[in-house]
Amino acid sequence: xxxxxxSGGYLDExxxxxxxxxxxxxxxxxxxxxFIAPTPHIVVPVSGGGLPINLTSGAVVTEPRGIHIxxxxxxxxxxxxxxxxxDAGTIVQCDVPQGSNRKGKGYATVLFKTQEEADRCLELxxxxxxxxxxxxxxxxxxxxxxxxx
Length: 149
Prior knowledge:
- By secondary structure, the protein is an alpha+beta fold.
- The protein is built from 3 helices and 7 strands.
- The longest helix is centred in the C-terminal third of the chain and has 11 residues, at 115-125.
- It is elongated and about 70 Å long.
- This is RRM domain-containing protein.
């Protein structure tokens, strides 16, 4: 299976029987170095959205009121977007990022007052047309908020 210049041992066999040697790959064992056990992995608790949770300060959870909108016209403003989706409910925050040329980047994030209003926005305005372009919406998976544990 494998060869070693020294006597080998239980750790060598246990490691290499489950490692590359088990796949038939020749392995050279260097016994001049001391064996250092691998550091166990630290498990970080995460929220449903895959974001880390700081349990001492509360959980970081995905904000269900946040909407991400893509395929926006580059010349659309936050006010025009607000006017377009106003019928869905109360908009708490509307961000349309701009590049260095002062034109939009083609996407936006919107935060509604309630989750129900965000749901209504998805139902009413996903695949709607704004300034000649079809816009698409989904939950904003990067919008987060703290929640006490």
